[in-house]
Amino acid sequence: MRNFLFRLFLVILFALSAWADEEAEMKEKTKFSAETFSGIRLRNIGPALMSGRISDTAIDQTQPNTWYVAAGSGNVWKTVNAGTTWTPIFDKYGSYSIGCVTIDPSNRHIIWVGTGENVGGRHVGYGDGVYKSLDGGKSFKNLGLKDSEHIGKILVDPRDSNTVYVASQGPLWSAGGDRVLYKKQMAVNPGCRFSLKAPTQE
Fold first, then answer.
1. For position 121, what pLDDT does the model report?
2. Which of 69, 122, 148, 194 is the most buried if burial means most Cβ atoms within 10 Å?
3. Residue pair 189/156 in contact by the 8 Å Cβ criterion
4. 178: how many CB neighbours lie within 10 A of its CB?
C-alpha cells in the first residue's frame, strides 16, 4: 500500500511539473510586444481630436456615405466616404461653436446649421444664429436669430421645405435674446434672407 501511494505521488508530481512547463511555454509563445499589433494600429478617422464635443449629426438618406457632423467646440465637418476622411465646411462664418445640423428631407443639398453649442455649462461657446446652404455645405448664408446664442434643433417639414422650426435656447447667463420655438414659412425664393418670428398661439 505504501508503495502504491508513493508511486501515485510521483505520478501526480510529474503531471504537475509537466503542466507547469507547458504553461510557461504557452506564456512565452503568447507574450505581447510592440510588434504584436504593429499591423493594426488605431487611427483617428473623425473630428473628435480636432474639435472636441460632437453636438449633432445628419446623414444623407440618399447618399448614406455622406454625413454632416456639428462640433460644439469647432466647426461643421463633412465626409462623403463614411468617415474615412473629413472636411471642415464652416471655417469662414461667424461662429466656431455649432449646436445642430439638419439636412432638408426633400432636398439633400439644403443644409441648415444652428450655431452655439446646445448644452448648458461654463465650457460652451455661443453662436450668431441660423445658417443655410443651398449647395451641400459649399457656402452658407446667415438667415437670422443672431441673438439666439444657442440653437438646440432645426426641423424642416418633410411635406413642405418652406416650413422650418427652430428651437432657440437663448443666452445662458443673461435675460433676453432670441429665446423660444420659432416657425417660419419661407417665401418662394428659398435663398432669401428672412427673420424668424415666434409662432402665435392659436
1. 74
2. 148
3. no
4. 23
